[in-house]
Every structure is written in structure tokens, then in C-alpha cells.
Amino acid sequence: xxxPLLTKTxxxxxxxxxxxxxxxxxxxxQRMAVLVDELLNTVGDDETHPLANLLExxxxxxxxxxxxxxxxADAPPYDVLRFLMQEHNLTPNDLPEIGYQKEVLxxxxxxxxxxxxxxxxxxxxxxxxxxxxx
Length: 134
Known about the structure:
Structural class: mainly alpha
Strand content: under 5%
Number of helices: 6
Shape: elongated
Number of strands: 0
Number of domains: 2
Mean pLDDT: 88
Distance between the termini: 41 Å
Radius of gyration: 17 Å
Oligomer: single chain
Largest sheet: none
């Protein structure tokens, strides 16, 4: 006999299965990346937002796919940012997504962490998954 929680989960699984499953193809991965962008726009920096946990969960599922299909060396977000800046010939003054030059330099030195809004904006600018900054 199933528990009430399992019975309820079975009843509601089909509508959410495409959202809460590890992507197994590039198409599924891209669909989930778009959803993460939408959630970042909706949730922003509000960790108390009702969808904040969903954003975290989907980001984790995307990360699982990326580790297998798009492996990159584990690097802290500031190293990833440095690499992207170098690839695009950018200076700290070229990143209004983070803030003023001082804030950018603190981020690049590992003294300041990126917030959700900054991650959202940087991922859009560089066309990368937000997970690379997490």
C-alpha cells in the first residue's frame, strides 16, 4: 500500500516530470536552461520567493547534465568570470551587470560573491548556464 505522499506524488507527477527530471538530451537541457532564465527573472534575489527552491532544484538538475555532457574544470565563479572577460577582451569597467569597478574587482579577487541577479545578467551576456557561476 502506498503512503498518502507517494499517492499524491504519482497523481501530480506527469505535469511536473519534464521540469523536475535530469535532462537526457541537448533539447531537454536547453528547455531547462530557458526555464532557469525565466525563474531568475521571476525570483531575482528573493530567497523567500515561493519559486526559489524550484530554481535551486532545476539549477542542480542542469548541473548534473553539464557535468556529464559539458564538463569544465571545477573553478570558482571568479575564475570563470576572469576567463570569460579575457575571452571577450573586457575590463572591470565593462561589467555593469556586477556594479561599479570596485565591486567587480572585489568579485574577481574572491572577496565578494555574485548574487542571483548578477548571475542572471552575466549568464545572459555570455550565453552560458547560470550554473557556471554557482
